[in-house]
Amino acid sequence: MYKTQIELLKLSKAKGCMTMDEPVCLIDTESDGKLCVQQSALQILQQIQQPVVVVAVVGLYRTGKSYLMNRLAGKQTGFALGSTIESKTKGIWMWCVPHPTRAETTLVLLDTEGLGDVDKGDSKHDTKIFSLAILLSSTLVLNSRGTIDNRAIEELQYVTELTEYIKIKSPDEVVDDSEFVKFFPNFIWAVRDFTLQLNINGQDTTEDEYLEFALKLKLGYSSQVNNYNLPRECIRKYFPSRKCFTFPFPTNPDNVSYLETLDPADISKQFLKVTDRFCQFIFDQSQVKNLKDGHAVTGRVLGHLAKTYVETISSGAVPCLENAVIAMAMIENEAALQEGLEVYQNGMDNLRISFPLELNEITSEHQCFSLMATQTFMKRSFRDHDGKYLTSLEEAISCKFDAYLWDNEKASEAKCESLLSVLSDPMTEKINQGIYARAGGYNLFCEDLENIVNQYNTLACKEVKIAEVLEKFLQEKAAVTTAILQADEKLTENERRIFEERERAVLLEQEIIAQEERQRQLEEKIETEQQNNEERVRQVIERMEEEMSQQQQETKRAMESKLREQTALMEKGFQEKADRMTWEIEELKRKNADVEDTMSRKYAQMIADQQRRNNQSMEVLRQQHRQQMQAINNRPRPASRSSCSIQ
């Protein structure tokens, strides 16, 4: 058997891809017969951030399923091939490899335990495994031996029981399998040890035509005809596309059990040729696994799905696609929110190292990282139709931006205060020495103070707190200035009164300058937020159009499948079944129109709410702006400057 400890796996990560040297068990059976998901496999899937193409193989035990999966992995060995009548694969085993033909995509191979193993005991166990293979895969390979005859199809009774094990919208819904075609994987029938000639009624035929011939329905209403038709109807109805490959005997019957160890020279060239064609078809045609609504599944999401479905089945309930999507949306949207916030925070934390910065620089970087965060969120999130998680992201970013602005202001304030302290040290020394406390000292003091202010304005010209710190500095020096003014015996009493008035004017003017600077910074913030709001609305609209397109493609695929099936039924004389198919097609159109209308209304409401929140936040900023403008306008303007005025 395989090594089951994750420590024994050799894993390498690159751009969210996980390369495994050998398979691991994804779903196992506990001693009480219940299915369980292996944590070690979930840890591997959790690290795969790329979209996944999931290929699952099902079939009777000892039919060589594992050999085909090893070839898809590009290996000779990996999934166990037994050499006895005992079924080797138990549960569902997983092998993740880089997709050989699609960049940034991971190929996930699921090898299921053989169906029909008499040792299992639980008659429903096979149906559960079969259902899980369908729920988790984007391509389902049915592996059988011999021919596609009535016995082979009768052995596929699991397909007729799927309505008991898979629901679309609710576990309690009335049986309605008409929508299975929208969500079921593509279907490939691999017929092993095929010895017949591909000839029907004397005419050469293709493998696909052979499959369709085997799935042909019989006319009539007897129970025998109904039993004959039921599994064929299910396959035709559920699977949107069908493909067939017929494999000849690979080698001498004595060597079949040791196929993985044989030299290629000992294997039939025709068998290898069909195997290569089979692998290439899967590489080229198998699609990325999608959730209901068309959202691409990553390895991480696949792990969540496996856990959800297995826990549901083990509890005795029926897996429901809609419930699974809702559960995934909650998990992924919360993770998308945190991921987006992390992108913003990492960028701004790196920027904080360079604080203090000019306001336009920090707002520009905030705008850049904010949009990157929204893009990151949009890439991972889905079904956030009410904008709940996007709103939470916006609020968190806004809160953090205010904190970064505060940090930048404190850094700027400290830098400005330090600069003024250094520049004013010589003046402080003169004050301590009493140099200004003599006749003519006031003019000397004013000259020194003006020189300090001019140097400060030159050196701190890019600081966001330049005006406020200078205002505070001048306020602190006001008492000293007054004392020096009063002590200057050279000045007349009238001159002192004039200079005192001018000193008050200087302080008032600096206060107004500081307020105007705050006003300018607020205007810059308003402009930045306006641009961010417009970009977020654009991204929401883009995401809405993308999800609507996915929904339409999903429906188109199902519609085309049903129309093909209807045409085939009419050609073969099954008018009643064709008429029923007409009803299903019309019902599918109606349901699709309802879904699109609901999505449109939800997105319209989401955009309206987004714009309303934007308007509210902008109104708060504009109200601050009006209040600041009113405060500035209500201030009396100084008539003149003193010799200690700011240049």
Biggest sheet layout: 8 strands, mixed
The fraction of residues in strands falls at 5-15%
SSE order? EEEEHEHEEHEHHHEEEHHEHHHHHHHHH
Helix content: 55-70%
Secondary structure category: alpha/beta
**Low-confidence spans:** 1-15, 82-87
Distance between the termini: 85 Å
Rg, alpha carbons = 38 Å
Number of helices: 17
Write down how many β-strands occur, each being a DSSP E stretch of 2 or more residues: 12
Arithmetic mean pLDDT: 82
The 3D shape can be described as elongated
Strand order of the largest sheet: 4-3-6-7-5-8-9-12
Q: Could you state the oligomeric state of the chains shown?
A: single chain
Brief rundown of the structure:
This protein is α/β, with parallel strands linked by helices and 647 residues long.
Characterise the protein shown here.
The protein has 647 residues and is an alpha/beta fold. 58% of the residues lie in helices and 10% in strands. The protein contains 17 helices and twelve strands. Strands 4-3-6-7-5-8-9-12 form an eight-stranded mixed beta sheet, sandwiched between helices. A hairpin with a 2-residue loop joins strand 1 and strand 2. Helix 11 packs antiparallel against helix 12. The protein is elongated and about 130 Å long. The protein starts with 10 loop residues before the first strand and ends in a 13-residue tail after the last helix.
